[in-house]
Amino acid sequence: MERIPMTANGFKMLEAELKRRQGEERPRIILAIQEARAHGDLSENAEYSSAKEAQSHNEGRIVELESMISRAEIIEVSKLTGKTIKFGATVKLVDEDTEEEKSYQIVGDLEADVKSGRVSISSPIARALIGKTVGDTVEVNTPGGGKSYEVVEVAFR
Questions:
Q1: Which segments within 3-134 are labelled E, that is strand?
Q2: Helix, strand or coil, per DSSP, at residue 139
Q3: Topology, domain 77-155
C-alpha cells in the first residue's frame, strides 16, 4: 500500500471533509431519498434518481477519503530544518525576468492549491526546486514557457 505524504494541515482537512460527509451529507441525502420515495412511482421520479446519484457520489468520496487517511504519512513541517529545499519547505523565489517575488510551500498532491501558495510535490516547479538552496537559480518549464527563478529564502513553518 503506497503511503501518501502530506502536512498535518492537509491531514486535518481530509478528516474534516470525512466528518462532514458522514455526519451532515449522509443524513441529508437519506432524508432526500425518503421524501422522494414518498412521492410514489420510483421509475419516473427525478428527485429519487438525483438523490440516489448524490448518495452514490457521497459514499464513493467517503471510501476515497478513508483510504487516503489510512495511507497518510504525516510530515510535521515545523520539526524540519535545513537549508535544502524538500517536502514541506516554504520557498521564496524571485522571477529573474520580472523581479516579481513568489512564495510557495511544497505539499502533498491532495492538498495542493496554487492560489493559496501550496504546490504539489509532483508539480514541475516543486521537482525543479527539490535539493536546491538559497542563491541557486532554477529553470522551470511551465505551460506558458520556460521561467527562471532565484531561490532567496527557504523556511520550514
A1: 4-7, 72-75, 90-95, 101-107, 118-120
A2: strand
A3: Chitinase A; domain 3 (3.10.50)
Phi, psi of 23 (to 5 degrees): -90, -25
pTM of the shown model? 0.80
CATH for 4-75? 1.10.287.180
**What does each of the 157 residues of the chain score in pLDDT, given as a tens digit?**
789 999 999 999 999 999 999 999 999 999 999 998 888 777 778 889 999 999 999 999 999 999 999 999 999 998 888 899 999 999 999 988 888 999 999 999 989 998 999 999 999 999 999 999 999 999 988 777 888 999 999 999 8
Domains of the chain, by residue range, sit at 4-75, 77-155
Distance CA 6, CA 118 (A): 12
CA distance 59 to 65: 10
Contacts of 125 (CB under 8 A, 6+ apart): 104, 119, 138, 140, 142
